[in-house]
Amino acid sequence: MSSTILAILVLLAIGLMGLRIANQYQRAVIFRLGRYMRTSGPGLYWIIPLIEWQQTVDLRINTTAVEQQETITKDNVPIKVNAVVWYRVVDPKLSVIEVKNIDLAVIQVALTTLRTGIGQHSLDEVLKEQETVASIIQGKIDAVTEPWGVKVERVEMKNVEIPESMQRAMAQEAEALREKRARLIKAQAEFEASEQLRRASEIIMQNPAALELRRMQMITEVGAEQNTMTIVMMPSEFVSMAGAIGKMAAAKA
Questions:
Q1: What pTM value is reported for the model?
Q2: Which of 58, 110, 188, 205 is 20 to 30 A from 137, alpha carbon to alpha carbon?
Q3: Which domains does the chain have, with CATH numbers?
């Protein structure tokens, strides 16, 4: 009787030794005598003690900073770039069997791909289209890590350093572009002003009295100022008409 109880206790102990719990974000890759058997989790599962062993894999997104890399763009400009890579394990089995250290492997792939990827784009593309360049680099890294059961979610360049001489040249270019825009705006304003003057001249030519009214208005505006001497040039017709009116007034007197 006692041997039976002892055997039950031993079996119960072995059974309890084999119980495992995996969190919601974890998966357990289980091997039996060195061969892959299954992937378990999340929750409670059981392995055979001393025969089966496990390796737990985290499925959450990992963030890895890629150290600064010095590379040359397509138009032969030396730059320094550092980036951040977001990735996660989508196949726990492959991430354990195909690669020894998944984090180190992803970092090394990101380093080499970042250098070669930047070399395929010009400096303007790297500076102005960083999202597009980062997306292309992401696709290349993901193609390498896919057989490892790893999905690269995102790649983003944190900082792009360019030589000081190139910075000065870019500043001069930006200043030249601003000056160009200013001149274009001024020329457009002058063109619109001349167009308005042309329309006004056409109206005045159609109605000469409008010119005299405008002249009288101008005289009134000038005469309103103090200490101002105004010389008025009158048409000869006005002078003749004024002389005739004066003679008529003298004759009546």
A1: 0.62
A2: 58
A3: 2-57 (no CATH), 62-162 (3.30.479.30)
